[in-house]
Known about the structure:
The protein is of the alpha/beta class.
Amino acid sequence: MTKRVLVPIDRSEQAEAAAAFAVENFPDATVVLFHVINPAEAGYSAQASVPSFSEEWYEEKQAEASDRFDELAAIAREGGVESVERVVEVGRPTKAIVEYADEHDIDQIVMGSHGRSGMSRILLGSVAEIVVRRATVPVTVVR
Length: 143
């Protein structure tokens, strides 16, 4: 049975470490590189009826995701992974990751941790921590 491993990515070193971990530990799996464009970064609020982010901002975020996908897909291919999928969603990262895993037969989530601690973790929250708590599949957090 082929596993499907979801690897949420951003521009961080931790995301790259997560991709490398997934390739090393699940070489026969389909690796699903997953990026979430968060409208909150562009000033969108849930109360607004019309998002305030521009089409230009959105296209720039899509291009950044595509470039990152290319980098991480190359790591996967070098590691012998034959099947790499690329997915971009728009929304809140924690919700998008958990919902995608539930709806697309994902067997494992491998993600990076930004390693925040103390007050910054309390104030900013942790995407990895929330995914670990809410996911219905195993989650590996790579530091």
